[in-house]
Amino acid sequence: ELFCRLCYESVHVGFMHANCVSKVELSISCNNLLDKDVGSKSDPLCVLLQSIGDDKWTEVERTERVKNCQDPEFSTKLHIDYHFEKVQKLKFGVYDIDNKSVNLSDDDFLGGFECTLGQIVSSRKITRPLQLKAGKPAGKGTITVTADETKDNRAIVMEVEAKNLDKKDMFGKSDPFLEFFKQEEDGKWQLVHRTEVEFDCIHPEKQKKKKSYKNSGVIRIKDCKLEAQYSFLDYVMGGCQINFTVGIDFTGSNGDPRSPDSLHYLSPNGVNQYLSAIWSVGQVVQDYDTDKLFPAFGFGAQVPPDFKVSHEFPLNFNPSSPYCQGVQGIVDAYRMVLPQIRLYGPTNFSPIINHVARIAAGAAQQPNAAQYFVLLIITDGEITDLDQTRQAIVNGSKLPMSIIIVGVGEADFKAMEFLDGDNGVLKSLTGEPAARDIVQFVPFKQFDKAPKEALAQSVLAEVPNQLVSYFKMRNMAPVNPPSPTK
């Protein structure tokens, strides 16, 4: 139930954006389960566990028990909070329940499997063979998990006008606006929306006092319709692929990679800040790209065979196919290229940004929301081509892409914070404003002592809203939109 109220006060309304947690509902079914009961079929139940780190798991929810069934379709849905910026490891276990105890340790294990929530939502539906333990098949049986976002994605869109309103201000005209309320389960009315100043309707006190009173103006609903308001999960589960590209700074200011003082120096355990950033961000994004082929480039180095400076060279030295297989492929290519190049300079971002923008521009010609691009740039210092980079970002803001910049080392990153645009709309040198905010910058040193997943959570937190803002700007629906009655 909904009602609206006319107000005449002068009100200034501010809106603050917050990242909302999405709720995902998982439907579970199994086929051809093992028979563990003598003289009858198993009585299966499925339990969902989530990793809490250090090989520890906590139970999220479990389905009902289905009696005497090898092919159960569980009616109880499993619910879990979804965070794009995290790798959420899940474990599904199917048990044969023969007692009333909630403890599963005395029940027969029919099999299970592990995956990430990102893998499920990016495919919307996955089927896997059951395993008794990692790498050991259960012998028979499969499990199917189907994901849906638990929300109604419809919004009421109304066009309203008002005429002949009462004059309430001593000087000048009144400043009316509408407030919309919805009734909660306890009967109380909750404000859900306040319009900008401009509307009116009946004044109840005047109506009581004057028999001849008709109204204090007229409000007319010119148009009212239901429109879909698509979420990030609507696009991802509807078939949008997120393409991941990496750009790595190989300028001389990083220091000689053979020296322990260099930012490119590989420690005895084979890592450095560059690799840590690649792993942190890449492990999240890779779940949303089906082929797991990621272009990886370097800039600011002299490259063989002629050792000319390049600001856009593929780590595998193959310009026609700069792809690496998975995040591990990027890491392997980085380690391979490091001893073959000479660190030089300057620090130019625009060539790699423009490279990704050209590919994104091709995807933008598609009639639906099929592809989005995320570029990760890892750098140690001050940018040299700031004006060209500003223009490249402004151009990119009109394309399906986001840019993440991770600053390593102790350099001054004021220019990166400027490009981030959090303190105002980024503009090109000619004054053209960015169509939307697509850059997120963080210094790696802020996460030195933080959990390893903290960096990805920080730099990727804005990507879902950036993706939605682009497709909303283009009025593009998901490739496979959700049902209107979802």
UniProtKB/TrEMBL annotation:
InterPro entries: C2_dom, C2_domain_sf, Copine, Copine_C, VWF_A, vWFA_dom_sf. It comes from the Eukaryota. Gene3D superfamilies: C2 domain (2.60.40.150). GO terms for molecular function: calcium-dependent phospholipid binding. Coiled coil: none annotated. GO terms for cellular component: plasma membrane. GO terms for biological process: cellular response to calcium ion; positive regulation of tumor necrosis factor-mediated signaling pathway; regulation of canonical NF-kappaB signal transduction. Residues 1-130 form the C2 domain. SMART domains: C2 (SM00239), VWA (SM00327). Belongs to the copine family. This is Copine I. It comes from Cyprinus carpio.
